[in-house]
Amino acid sequence: xxxxxxxxxxxxxxxxxxxxxxxxxxxxxxxxxxxxxxxxxxxxxxxxxxxxxxxxxxxxxxxxxxxxxxxxxxxxxxxxxxxxxxxxxxxxxxxxxxxxxxxxxxxxxxxxxxxxxxxxxxxxxxxxxxxxxxxxxxxxxxxxxxxxxxxxxxxxxxxxxxxxxxxxxxxxxxxxxxxxxxxxxxxxxxxxxxxxxxxxxxxxxxxxxxxxxxxxxxxxxxxxxxxxxxxxxxxxxxxxxxxxxxxxxxxxxxxxxxxxxxxxxxxxxxxxxxxxxxxxxxxxxxxxxxxxxxxxxxxxxxxxxxxxxxxxxxxxxxxxxxxxxxxxxxxxxxxxxxxxxxxxxxxxxxxxxxxxxxxxxxxxxxxxxxxxxxxxxxxxxxxxxxxxxxxxxxxxxxxxxxxxxxxxxxxxxxxxxxxxxxxxxxx
Length: 427
Prior knowledge:
About 55% of the residues lie in helices and about 10% in strands.
């Protein structure tokens, strides 16, 4: 196979070489896909994990990617010509391999203390950060590189999932290596979701005992309070007295989101990851969307309420009516994973829905509030009593009042329907 110069050029004496990308079209109709057959060989010459290359090509082509570590190949949805894949690979090299200073492919990649992607060039000594605005940056932060040109596994420092922790606990309880198989079976029992016609549920939930549920409720509340403080779109800023400011300053060192600059960076990173997951949901790939959200939740210790906050901030716009239907499966699975569904539904209405229709996209959505509530009710994301209690409770805030006034037709319809049912029962 002929070799190409890394970074382009025709100099035959250039020492940095790579194999040309080999693409193979497979499938028909909705199952069309393109396999990058030699993704591992190409990425190895670039000293990057092959998953990064495949993911980059997929992002640039607006497609969804999958990986096969055994075969060393990656798949991008849809049919794509090999020259196009080579072009995207060359762009990947320019942005994620070549040194910005000396233009040589002598850079190594690592994750910094502030969750930034850092390049170090062995040729000229360059040290700098990568472009964090590209979607690949989120994928890299969730799947950090190791020293051997691959992705860190869980044993070498990668983030352990809840399933992994449950399995380890089951193994220890069963007697270590001797009972490893039994431990794995026990872990599967703990993490196994209830089956339905869709993909697995229970993706964010593990132990369902009373003690575990109570612990998760407390953790979810504490976690969301911090997320809410860092997510301006999802919170209504109030006036703080001197004591509140003093307490906030004292607790700053204990805040896992760090100082203001770090919080903003983290907020942007999580938002980008959630947005990418919801784009997969909009494309109909529910399983992939759920896996992506699981990765975000695991990495940042987020609970369902936290994810709902970010989802409403990044996944909905003036086309919310259509988007709720697109994301129905993901939203319902996330609600099902909540330790307290009533509290989660209350949170979905206020502040999430209130902010979406009464502030962020007020002009386009406020008048559509009844229709949006009806859609959320029909898809079982919100229950009748939750909507009515929210409405009847009222609000002293301008935002809450405006959204409730707009929601009145839907609430009236719900109450009248309930009264009709009561009349039928009396008869």
